TrEMBL record:
SUPFAM superfamilies: Cytochrome P450. One of its GO terms (molecular function) is oxidoreductase activity, acting on paired donors, with incorporation or reduction of molecular oxygen. This is Cytochrome P450. Keywords: Heme, Iron, Metal-binding, Monooxygenase, Oxidoreductase. Gene3D superfamilies: Cytochrome P450 (1.10.630.10). Its cofactor is heme. Belongs to the cytochrome P450 family. InterPro entries: Cyt_P450 (IPR001128), Cyt_P450_E_grp-I (IPR002401), Cyt_P450_sf (IPR036396), Cytochrome_P450_Monoox (IPR050196). Heme binds at C438.
């Protein structure tokens, strides 16, 4: 009866709690299949959900701990779905046309990130591009895009090449079959690359470590409040500013501010992204970018630019380990293109197999598996009436595994990306699409292809015996507990 409630006490309460805990703790069923003789690999993914329909609260709680396991087979098709959760309208948009409507045609109505995402990140990033909208976003977007633009990527190629080669050297010093965690190795690699690109040589080893660790601990906090999950609509949810968090944010800000002030005073590494930001401000003083605004954009590029690429590379290693026939193809390609020389950024256009592996990896494991927006005004998407302030979700995880768009969608098949054929527009969106598309797309793709080529030229990875790989949707889509692997010299 609406409005009534009952209090459960004693044995009943204990039983209720035990059931609830058991239910919350239930393990996601993971599907994984391989047959080397028929060159077939279906990498790990959650089984289709087949619980009772009509239990939104249960699904909501399950989504908080595992967003990937709540989808039924029927969700993996081209459609628009609508739910109501605690009075809030939630719209899931899963077809190229309707996605185009949201991200391109009606971009201004759907450009706004969810309140929870904005709140959680603003302490660290201020009004940085990732969470800004309206005038601030319009003014800053061309600035940031220009700095990470594809024309500038070759200039950062040497940083990518040197950093990946240093890692290869370190791996060489470990024994044959050494155990490492691929996710941590890749996170270290991409953090180093973005740190050197954004800040040049100005940070020094100690400053670089402090910034990287500060971001990692901030993200752990953000993760713990489930940022990025589809319930991110609570405008009032306060971010818990523990003393530790305050200290690490202050430290990050202080270090970055110092670098910026040095650049403003004409001292600092000329080739860094911070220098490009500062020069742009000096050429266009009407932009009115003060130290805080410059810091916010530098911090945004730093944060947006490394975890995604680390997750991509980790998943690529897993896929290669499960499909040795693809691994053989990329080894042959690297040999044909580079011989014994270390692959460089100039080789990237010729590494079509490596590119196809990265693109297929981004299809199967999109590092940003949910794009969540808040509708500014009422609208209609694919016949569904959308209310003002509704939560609109595009879920690349679902879209990329929709059979009408990608036949045999759960299968690792990089050949889909070889040659001229491209996926239908708005069906493949690991970097989002429309005006808010990832400005670091070319940087990230080049970095992933080049690092993979440099490391695969010398090493193979195999998932540690007995380890069960399980995708987990946190801030980015990554393997639960990382990816324990063994390293093998080639
Ligand atoms: C494989 C690597 C990467 C992937 C998959 C990726 C994916 C994405 C996605 C999906 C978004 C849009 C998020 C949303 O709208 O909710 C985004 C935004 C962004 N990315 Fe990337 N990214 C990658 C690498 C990079 C790199 C290397 C940089 C910088 C060097 C970068 C900088 C940014 C920035 C600044 C934004 C915010 C853009 C805006 O809101 O206008 N990303 N990225």
């Amino acid at each position: 009866m609406p409005g009534s409630y009952s209090v459960v006490t004693g044995r009943k309460a204990r039983k209720f709690c035990t059931n609830m805990l058991a239910w919350l703790d239930q393990k996601t069923e993971i599907v994984e299949g391989a047959d080397q003789s028929s060159q077939y690999f279906e990498p790990a993914h959650a089984a289709y959900y087949n619980g009772k329909p009509g239990q939104p609260l249960k699904l909501m709680l399950q989504a908080r701990s595992d967003f990937l396991s709540i989808w039924r087979r029927a969700d993996y098709r081209e459609h628009v779905a609508e739910f109501k959760l605690l009075g809030r309208q939630l719209v899931i948009v899963n077809s190229p046309d309707t996605i185009r409507h949201v991200v391109a045609k009606r971009h201004e109505n759907f450009e706004r990130k969810t309140p929870q995402m904005r709140r959680a990140l603003e302490y660290l990033l201020g009004d940085g591009l990732f969470i800004s909208d309206k005038e601030t976003w319009k003014q800053r977007r061309p600035l940031v895009s220009d700095i990470v633009h594809k024309n500038r990527v070759p200039a950062f190629g040497a940083i990518m090449q040197n950093t990946a080669s240093e890692l290869a050297e370190r791996w060489q010093s470990l024994g044959e079959g050494a155990e490492v965690n691929a996710l941590f190795e890749m996170a270290g690699l991409t953090a180093e690359i973005i740190s050197r690109s954004v800040f040049g040589n100005d940070l020094g080893q100690e400053g670089a470590n402090a910034v990287t660790e500060g971001f990692a601990s901030y993200q752990a906090l953000v993760d713990s409040i489930n940022l990025g999950y589809f319930l991110g609509f609570d405008e009032g949810l306060p971010i818990v500013k523990t003393p530790n968090l305050r200290r690490s944010v202050k430290r990050i800000h202080r270090i970055i501010d110092q670098v910026i002030e040095d650049h403003l005073a004409g001292k600092g590494d000329n080739s860094s992204m911070v220098e490009l930001l500062v020069r742009r401000q000096q050429r266009n003083p009407e932009l009115k970018l003060d130290v805080v605004a410059l810091r916010n954009e530098a911090a945004t590029i730093f944060m947006a630019g490394h975890e995604t690429t680390a997750a991509t590379l980790t998943w690529a290693w897993y896929l290669l380990a499960g499909a040795p026939w693809v691994e053989a193809a990329i080894h042959a390609e690297i040999e044909a293109v580079c011989g014994n020389r270390v692959p460089s950024v100039d080789d990237v256009p010729a590494l079509s197999w490596c590119r196809a592996v990265i693109e297929e990896t981004l299809r199967l494991y999109p590092p940003v598996p949910i794009l969540a927006r808040q509708a500014a005004e009422a609208d209609e998407i694919g016949g569904v009436k959308v209310r003002k302030a509704a939560l609109v979700l595009i879920v690349p995880w679902l879209l990329h595994r929709t059979e009408t768009l990608f036949p045999e969608p759960h299968r690792f098949h990089p050949e889909r990306f070889l040659g001229e054929a491209r996926p239908t527009p708005y069906s493949y969106i690991p970097f989002a699409a429309g005006p808010r598309v990832c400005p670091g797309l070319q940087f990230g793709l080049t970095e992933a292809i080049l690092c993979l080529a440099i490391l695969a030229q010398r090493f193979r990875m195999r998932v540690k015996e007995g380890h069960k790989v399980q995708p987990q949707c946190r801030l980015t889509l990554r393997p639960r507990d990382g990816m324990p692997v063994t390293l093998h010299r080639r």
